[in-house]
Amino acid sequence: MHSIGSRCHELRIRDIDKSWRIIYRMDEDAILIIEVFNKTTRTTPDQIIENCQKRLSKYDTDIQE
User: Fold this and answer.
1) Known Pfam families for this protein (predicted)?
2) Cα–Cα nearest to 5, from 45, 54, 40
């Protein structure tokens, strides 16, 4: 998912009546679970993308300290 950041991916899980998405990033030393949500439309909502970008930015800033 380049709209969120490099090394970000989306895992799709189909349940009986829902379609779950897990957005994650693969770093050299960790796999970061950024967001889990029930996808109800064809596109990923802008709010989800923005939340993921903010979380990754905060994580990257915190990890450098």
Assistant:
1) Gp49
2) 54
- Determine if the pTM surpasses 0.90: no
The rounded distance, in Å, linking the Cα atoms of 50 and 10 is 15
Which residue is it, tokens 């923005």? 50
Average pLDDT, the chain: 93
CA-only gyration radius of the chain, Å: 13
Which helix (H) or strand (E) covers residue 38, if one does?
A: strand 31-38
Which pairing describes strands 19-26 and 31-38: parallel, antiparallel, or unpaired? antiparallel
Kindly list the domain boundaries of the chain, sorted by start residue.
8-64
